[in-house]
Amino acid sequence: MIKEWENELLHRLRKASFEQQLIEELKAEAGNLGFDHCNYGVRLPLQLSKPKIIMFNTYPMTWQKRYQSRNYQRIDPTIQHGVRSQTPLIWTDEVFRNTREFWEEARGYGLRYGWSQSTVGPQSLRGMLTLSRRHGSLTASEMNAHGYQLVWLTQVVHQSMSKLLSARLLPEAHVDLSLREKDVLRWTAEGKSSLEIADLLNITERTVNFHIANILKKMNCANRTAAAVRATLLGLLD
What we know:
- This protein is α+β, with helices and mostly antiparallel strands.
- It has helices at 2-15, 19-32, 61-69, 77-84, 100-108, 140-169, 179-189, 194-201, 205-219, 224-233; strands spanning 37-43, 53-57, 89-90, 113-120, 126-133.
- The protein has a 5-stranded antiparallel β-sheet with strand order 2-1-5-4-3, sandwiched between helices.
- The protein starts with a helix and ends in a 5-residue tail after the last helix.
- Keywords: DNA-binding, Transcription, Transcription regulation.
């Protein structure tokens, strides 16, 4: 039965051609698992000083606007947990002990019991799936019965959403670097100069600089250090 569920869900989610369609499929599956709402957030790997988080959810519109206007991403403990850990998180009073006002306000909109889990996929995109409901705390027996499905759902949703988002929001992730360009970038990331890289790769310094010029153009970067950092964050050197 589990295998049939996996295949059927995988088929439906992979058919989604845009983000909202995927969220509608996710909402239906959340309902099957006993939840009222779903939320998927993705943290883009670039913009190191101020990472961008994009969210798609089925929460009440008034709460969505309130959350955005008050910049609750900044204090939301579920997001803070998701950035640090891929361990599933069940909402409790203890989780929200330092954000009591935020917690009470969310509960007022029917977001009283929830489960969250983050994961990291291609291009270093970190995503987090949250399912929540108004009534009924999550019991140990429920987690034993559906824990595997929740974890598997997180992985499939993240893969499907990453595919939809990366081409639009991370065009650099699809840069076609040659094997030699990747070699040059790897050594650049290690702090090597053009002359040192030339010696390591048994090519001329002029050839190294030629590759670096091509890399900067392809990745739209101002200098070699920025290109090395960006390529590393996007997983282009793996």
